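quick one, 408 residues, struct below
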Amino acid sequence: MTIVDATLSTGEVIDLHVDGGQVTSVGSGGGAVLDERLEAHRGLILPAFIDTHIHLDKALTRAAMRDPDGSLTGAVESTQAAKRAYSVEDVRRRAKEVIQASVLTGATRLRSHVDVDTIGGLTPLHGVLAAARDCAYIAEVTTVAFPQEGILRNPGAAELLVEAMTAGADVVGGMPHWEQTEDEQREHVRICFDIAERFDADVDMHVDETDDGSVRTLAMVADETVRRGWQGRVTAGHVVSLAAADDDYADEVIRRVADAGITVVSNPMTNLVLQGRADRGLVRRGTTRIRELLAAGVNVAAGQDCVSDAFTPFGRGDMLEVALFTAHAAHLTASYELDVVLAAVTSAPARTWRLGSGYGVARGARADLQLFAAPTWAEVLRRQDPPTHVWHSGRLVARSTVDRQLYG
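---
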C-alpha cells in the first residue's frame, strides 16, 4: 500500500509505503507505488492512538445501576453491586463495543484495568480477554489485574491477583491509597511488586486518586520501583492528590518519579468529574501536576479511563477527545504544548508499552496508522472529526466520513 501526499505532524509532506504490516519507507517520492494507492490530499498522517488507561470491564454499566452520588467512594460502592451481576458474556459484549468504538476513533492499542477481587472473582478478566480475542484483528488489548477493593482490605485479593496473572493478565495493578493505614499502603505496594517479580511483569497502579493532599503513596511506589530495579516498567495513574499536596513534597516526589522512570497517566475526563466536589469558590481542576511533571522530564500520558460507568456518565473511547480535555485541563495551548498533547496519546504511552522503534510513522514500525482530512494536529484537535482511515498492522480496519450540509 502507498499513501500519497500525506502530511506529517512536523509539516513535511511525504509518501508512505506499507508492506507486510510494516512501514517500509517514508519520504518525498519514495519509490515505486505498490498495488494499492491512497491519495491523502495533504491530510495529517499519525501513528494510531494508544489508550493506556481504560476500564473495559466496567464500561457501559451506568444505565443499569442506581444513580451514583458523584464521589469516588460512591462509584466504588455502586460498582460493587454491578460486579455481583456480571457474567463473562456480559463483560465481553460491553468491552467489545468500546474496543470497536475506540478503533473507529483511531486507537488500535488499549490497556484495560480489570477488577480482580472477591466480589467479581476473575469474571471481569475472562470477559475482557474474550473481547480482546474477538477484536484481535482490529486492535491489541492488554490487561492489568487491578485490585479495586484493595488487598489488605479485601482478604483473598492477593491470591486472586496471582490467579489472574496465571490466567493471562499482562500487567500487575494496584491501588495502595485505598488501604486504611500507611503501613497497609506500604504492604499493598510490596505485594504488587512481589507478584510483578514472580511473573516478570510491568506494574500499573492507580495512585492517590483523592483530593486529600496528605495521601502520599506515590512516594512509596517510586521508592519500591528503584528498590526492585523496575525502572521504566512502572506506571502511576491519576495521581490527583499531588495537586493538593504542598509544593516541597510535590517537587521532591516528582524528582523521585523522574529518577525511577515512572510514567504518569492523567485521566482528565473522569477526574474533572470526580475531584473537587467539596471545593467552594475556586474548584480544583481534578488533574495531577501535569506541567510540573513534564518540566521534570517525567513521561506523561493521557487515558480515557471510564466509559459510562459509576465514575462518569461520559466517555466513548475517543482519544482525540481525551487529548482535547487534556489540553484544556492542563492549560496546554501554545504550539509546542499541543505537540506535548499529541505525545500524551501517542509516543508517551508507546514508551510505557516499551514499543521502541516499533511504533510511529517511521520505517520499520508496525503500520498502526491513522489519516485525518485536516492537515495539522492543531486543526485535527480543534475540529474533533474522526480519522478518515485507520490501519492496524497494515490492514485497513476503519473508515469514517463526515457529511455536513447547510441549507438556507
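The longest strand covers residues 107-115.
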